[in-house]
């Protein structure tokens, strides 16, 4: 028992780092849901491809022998291409798989199936081009394992701090973009009421594309961070991470940006707590059970507005 | 001409289904045909929940898994029980129906998408439990599953060839098809369709929506459980990986592809979803890629599914018009 109490704070730190990344992915689900009231099931695959792009750049840099790899310049080199390419991929997915359906006013189940189709295509395209074996991130060249400090007996690595920092910055950036810029205002308007927004002169199609771009870019960044953290990536990684992030989005109240971040952190903590206190094998059971309980007793999500339709983003 | 075809199509399909295995070139094809029947059964169960009542259930495969494992508990050396096939299947069906009610009762008041998520979570929980409940007491056999499950037997006649399984599944499928048509045109079927079209209006018209939804859930789960029992008795073994989320999505894809709510369309969807990857076997590694692309294409070009409601004029007249 004493053992458990002494490793719990350590687990909480892992949980926070993981939760921050879940929050980043959850933002993609929540923004798309806010704008289209649709679950973008292919989002997990965008995250996976982000991890592969980061891996490709890192491997290329190592191959070039460009002096010492210092995270200050290498990290942006990994994040920026991953975010741009994943953002573009998100826009393409929306154009190809979703727009033809919702433009015709088809049922809500249609986009779900095209999303499944898109997931299968992306997974298999990655497997065929990159091989089925897992890829290894050379994280130790970037963040040597000696870069860590101790706080109240809890060992915190530099990478953990970086993950928390990067995700917080990205989330804050998104917040500012949504709340303070005209682009953000058009996203909020489309989420509120698509038809009225278009009457007010907002280009709805472009706004939806922008929403997919932003959400997918954050998903791509999350892929790089998870790659660095776990050091191993494979083409199936999008499935479970996507499911978790989606849980986080719902836990925080889907359609609600602040909720997605808090939901992510909460899920990360619940998971790490459960794997310490109960059994690592059942951590997902606890996470999903928390989700079900939250939905049954507070369907609008823990941090959602009472009237879920009122404030979408 | 077309009307005449739609009227006689059930008879034509039945005729084709009865003779298909006799014309099959080898036993492997018979196995594929049997698998189509099994999946059609599963898809018809989900069709009652999603197609008739409009409740999006993403964890449907959990009931299939529960059915399989309950059959394995009752008819294998694992617990030393060897109940007769009919009795075991009865318990299987009942326990799946009960689990449907148990998961449905607290969650069915949630709105559409939330219900989808809760059922998704339930499916994942079931899968994880199947994988991990081998310690401290060995209940499910963990990742290795349960083996040497009893085959079906009727009055001492044991079924053990693919073609016999095929006809067993076909008989059950026929019964479920008939039941689906009867349910669709019954009082409860109308209630389901009213809920699907507009839940608030349905409840204003005096439909007890919670009860009707629970009935849909229980009946769908019972069919899935029955199909699970059949799977266990056919494979003679069960593994957790038979019941991944992927399987739920596959079954959902069958009914959406075929034409949601359309009984014959659902069967067609099951046939396409099982047979297509088999046909693409030559493409080897590219077969899933092609499958995903076709799934997208069909939905974009024909969002109402291969057979829509319009394909069956009778349905249109008997159900409430939109």
Written account of the structure:
- The complex is a heterodimer of chains A (313) and B (322).
- The model of chain A is unreliable at 306-313 (pLDDT under 50).
- Chain A has a single domain (2-297), classed as Orthogonal Bundle (ABC transporter involved in vitamin B12 uptake, BtuC).
- A two-stranded antiparallel sheet of chain A has the order 1-4.
- In chain A, helix 3 (71-102) packs across helix 4 (109-130).
- Chain A is 74% helix and 4% strand.
- Chain A is globular and about 60 Å long.
- In chain A, strand 2 and strand 3 form a beta hairpin.
- Chain A has twelve helices and four strands.
- With 313 residues, chain A is mainly alpha-helical.
- Chain A starts with a helix and ends in a 16-residue tail after the last helix.
- Chain B has 322 residues and is mostly helical.
- Chain B has a single domain (2-318), classed as ABC transporter involved in vitamin B12 uptake, BtuC, CATH 1.10.3470.
- Chain B has helices at 2-23, 27-52, 61-74, 85-107, 112-132, 162-184, 187-197, 199-204, 209-235, 245-258, 263-279, 287-301, 313-318, and strands at 75-76, 81-82, 153-154, 157-158.
- In chain B, the strands form two sheets. In chain B, strands 1-2 form a two-stranded antiparallel ribbon. In chain B, strands 3-4 form a two-stranded antiparallel ribbon.
- In chain B, helix 2 packs across helix 10 (245-258) and helix 10 crosses helix 11 (263-279).
- The longest helix of chain B is centred in the C-terminal third of the chain and has 27 residues, at 209-235.
- The chains are: A mainly alpha (313), B mainly alpha (322).
- The interface between A and B is large, with 44 and 42 residues.
């Amino acid at each position: 028992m004493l053992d458990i109490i002494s490793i719990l704070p350590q687990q909480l730190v892992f949980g926070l780092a993981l939760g921050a990344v879940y929050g980043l992915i959850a933002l993609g689900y929540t923004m798309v849901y806010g704008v289209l009231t649709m679950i973008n099931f292919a989002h997990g695959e965008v995250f996976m491809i982000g991890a592969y792009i980061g891996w490709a750049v890192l491997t290329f840099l190592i191959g070039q022998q460009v002096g010492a790899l210092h995270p200050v310049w290498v990290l942006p080199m990994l994040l920026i291409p991953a975010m741009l390419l994943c953002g573009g991929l998100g826009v393409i997915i929306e154009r190809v798989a979703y727009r033809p359906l919702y433009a015709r006013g088809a049922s809500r189940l249609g986009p779900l199936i095209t999303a499944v189709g898109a997931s299968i295509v992306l997974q298999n395209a990655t497997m065929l081009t990159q091989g089925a074996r897992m890829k290894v991130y050379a994280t130790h060249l970037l963040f040597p394992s000696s870069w860590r400090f101790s706080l109240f007996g809890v060992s915190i690595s530099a990478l953990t701090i970086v993950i928390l920092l990067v995700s917080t910055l990205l989330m804050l950036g998104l917040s500012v973009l949504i709340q303070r810029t005209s682009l953000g205002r058009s996203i909020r308007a489309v989420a509120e009421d698509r038809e009225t927004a278009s009457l007010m002169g907002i280009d709805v199609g472009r706004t939806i594309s922008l929403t997919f771009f932003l959400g997918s870019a954050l998903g791509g960044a999350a892929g790089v961070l998870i790659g660095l953290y776990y050091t191993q990536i494979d083409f199936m990684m999008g499935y479970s991470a996507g499911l978790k992030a989606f849980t986080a989005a719902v836990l925080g109240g889907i359609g609600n940006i602040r909720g997605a971040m808090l939901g992510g952190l909460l899920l990360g903590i619940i998971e790490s707590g459960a794997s310490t206190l109960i059994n690592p094998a059942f951590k997902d059971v606890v996470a999903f059970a928390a989700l079900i309980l939250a939905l049954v007793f507070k369907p609008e999500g823990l941090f959602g507005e009472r009237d879920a339709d009122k404030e979408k983003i | 001409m077309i009307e005449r075809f739609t009227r006689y199509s059930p008879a034509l399909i039945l005729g084709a289904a009865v003779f298909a295995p006799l014309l099959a070139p080898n036993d492997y094809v018979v196995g594929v045909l049997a698998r189509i029947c099994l999946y059609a059964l599963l898809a018809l169960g989900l069709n009652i929940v999603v197609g008739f009542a409009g409740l999006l259930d993403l964890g449907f495969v959990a009931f299939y898994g529960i059915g399989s494992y309950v059959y394995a508990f009752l008819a294998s050396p694992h617990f030393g029980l060897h109940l007769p096939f009919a009795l075991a299947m009865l318990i299987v069906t009942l326990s799946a129906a009960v689990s449907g009610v148990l998961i449905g009762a607290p969650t069915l008041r949630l709105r559409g998408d939330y219900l989808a998520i809760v059922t998704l979570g339930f499916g994942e929980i079931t899968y994880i439990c199947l994988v991990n409940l081998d310690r401290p007491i060995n209940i499910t056999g963990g990742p290795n599953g349960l083996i040497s499950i009893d085959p079906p037997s009727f009055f001492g006649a044991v079924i053990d060839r693919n073609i016999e399984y095929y006809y067993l599944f076909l008989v059950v499928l026929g019964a479920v098809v008939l039941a689906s048509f009867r349910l669709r045109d019954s009082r409860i079927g109308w209630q389901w369709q009213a809920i699907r079209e507009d839940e608030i209006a349905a409840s204003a018209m005096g439909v007890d929506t919670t009860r009707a939804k629970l009935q849909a859930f229980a009946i769908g789960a019972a069919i899935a459980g029955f199909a699970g029992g059949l799977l266990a008795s056919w494979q003679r073994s069960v593994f957790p990986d038979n019941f991944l989320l992927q399987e739920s999505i596959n079954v959902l894809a069958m009914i959406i592809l075929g034409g949601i709510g359309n009984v014959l369309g659902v069967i067609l969807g099951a046939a396409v979803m099982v047979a297509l990857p088999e046909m693409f076997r030559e493409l080897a590694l590219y077969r899933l890629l092609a499958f995903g692309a076709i799934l997208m294409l069909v939905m974009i070009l024909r969002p109402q599914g291969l057979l829509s409601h319009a394909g069956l004029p009778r349905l249109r007249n008997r159900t409430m018009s939109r």
